[in-house]
């Protein structure tokens, strides 16, 4: 369905036809379309949806559109919206909405729901507790499969996932059973006979990144969440894990580009906010680069004796920065995927050293020959070739060591990416270059 068609049907008040078209579309696509039109038209189109579809569409909208719709909704519409929202989506909404709108929403929440909301909001930021939902299927081990199927049919509509049911005894999780196993086994069997007692789980305070890693490692679609007493309190579903992955990736990309991470989209963020998020790192990197300038100043005599040396500074600095960035990017990726750990730092260094040696020698030969052909000066060619080899080795070692050290001391490895690595490597490459030049030319 196209935006133009939606607007045409709204303008001509063909609401019945628009309702039919909207109900044929996916909730995510509808949410995207409604966000593209004026909020008044958006509210009209939204009211044409069924209650269940409307809740799905609403949960896929950005917070700005959600806030505007909540302001326009009647109390009855708000009550209907809350009834059809999953608890984790409702908590996300309450976290983002202004205080006055939160107050309106909470008027339509019963005491039990309010307690659950308060509990979910109390968990530490970026923990499993903040992304879990409390709607799940719980069975008893003595339940027969026939009765279990009836239970799923009666209660599944209120749960976010019906693929897995959880077997609890005194609220403690003792096993899991898939709906597929319930369907395919003899209906006279009990849940205890087919349930799995070996399963993955996390605690409410488990970091979200660890949750993502477990999902990826075991190819899960849902994961139970336990409290400190090993009682089942919720589940994390794959859609929430995907959101975490997007957020974590966006944060890492921002840090790798020396930009302070934030939640708003590019166009939602004002010019001043963009500048504020970028300026701090730019100032740090700018002032740290003055060290490189002061080193260059110390070797003015070398410039005067061999002016040609100056022309190769950008090439050496760029090569060193690029080599360091390559290594740091691969190491950061390896850390994120749990492929590389700090205890393997010497193994990583040895591998990067060998890579640097191969790369450095090839670059040195290529540049040495080029310089000799152009300037007919074997000393200059030798200085550049040797400087390249040493610079590449240092750059790749720095690029692999810093992210591992940062991760070990509790910092995000992404901060040790291109801008910072480049600044450090620039200083090292200049020191290497001029020290080699001074010794070769006896300056």
Automatic annotation (TrEMBL):
Single GO term (MF): metal ion binding
SMART domains assigned to the protein according to its UniProt record, in alphabetical order: CBS (SM00116), MgtE_N (SM00924)
InterPro entries assigned to the protein according to its UniProt record, in alphabetical order: CBS_dom, CBS_dom_sf, Mg_transptr_MgtE_intracell_dom, MgtE_N_sf, MgtE_transporter, SLC41_membr_dom, SLC41_membr_dom_sf
Residue ranges annotated for the CBS domain, each copy included: 132-193, 195-251
Keywords, comma-separated and alphabetical: CBS domain, Cell membrane, Magnesium, Membrane, Metal-binding, Transmembrane, Transmembrane helix, Transport
Gene Ontology cellular component terms for the protein in this record: plasma membrane
Transmembrane segments: 353-374, 380-405, 417-441
Subcellular location, record wording: Cell membrane; Membrane
Top-level taxon in the UniProt lineage: Bacteria
Membrane topology: Multi-pass membrane protein
Family: Belongs to the SLC41A transporter family.
PANTHER family, per database record: MAGNESIUM TRANSPORTER MGTE (PTHR43773)
Known partners and oligomeric status: Homodimer.
Function: Acts as a magnesium transporter.
Protein name (Swiss-Prot/TrEMBL): Magnesium transporter MgtE
Species of the source: Faecalibacillus intestinalis
